[in-house]
Amino acid sequence: MEVTSDNKPAENAPGIEIDILRVMEMIPHRYPMLMIDRVTDVITNVSAVGIKNVTINEHFFQGHFPQRPVMPGVLIVEAMAQTAGVLVVYSLGADAEGKLVYFMSIDEAKFRRPVTPGDTVHIHVNKLQHRRNVWKFRGEAKVNGVLCAEATFAAMILTG
């Protein structure tokens, strides 16, 4: 990873991909609440794409719905937030690693197609706004290029 003199990632470094081990260093989520497997196409302070490989072994399929398993929409939005969290930490640098991030709002959430076992979800997040420790994003979840879910959301990173 290319970094600047202040130990932050270089602006718009091309081809940045973050594997699961690095994701777990960056955000505090763990099984069963870690909803992304890796993050690709990271553009500092702009956007990122989270990848979630959905398997039948996911804990939530035991009850949602065993006869026709569907990933809960709220967990798809959580995957958007975790992808955004990785983007925030990547953009802010090492000092932000492991900090807690809390949802402040979720707006315009729409669920257009079920996500089921065997799907690979690409979670596209784009930063809309950043003021102090509050970040606002637009997220879209797609399977094979087809929109499954979308939302606009804001979160606060706890710095203290």
Q: What would you note in describing this structure?
A:
This protein has 160 residues and is of the alpha+beta class. The chain contains 2 helices and 7 strands. The protein has helices spanning 20-26, 73-92, and strands at 16-18, 38-43, 47-53, 101-111, 120-131, 134-143, 146-157. A 7-stranded antiparallel sheet has the order 1-2-3-5-6-7-4. The longest helix is centred in the middle third of the chain and has 20 residues, at 73-92. It starts with 15 loop residues before the first strand and ends with a strand. The relative contact order is 0.19. Residues 1-7 have low confidence and may be disordered.
Features:
160 residues; alpha+beta; seven-stranded antiparallel β-sheet; 2 helices; 7 strands; globular
Number of strands: 7
End-to-end Cα distance? 27 Å
Number of helices: 2
Which structural class is indicated by helix and strand composition? alpha+beta
| Percentage of residues in strands | 35-45%
Lateral strand order in the biggest sheet: 1-2-3-5-6-7-4
In the predicted model, the low-confidence regions spanning at least 5 consecutive residues are 1-7
Kindly provide the radius of gyration, computed on alpha-carbon positions and rounded to a whole number of angstroms. Answer: 15 Å
Global geometry: globular
Measured as a percent range, the helix fraction is 10-25%
User: Residue-averaged pLDDT, rounded?
Assistant: 91
Assembly form of the protein = single chain
> What order do the helices and strands follow?
EHEEHEEEE
Largest sheet: 7 strands, antiparallel
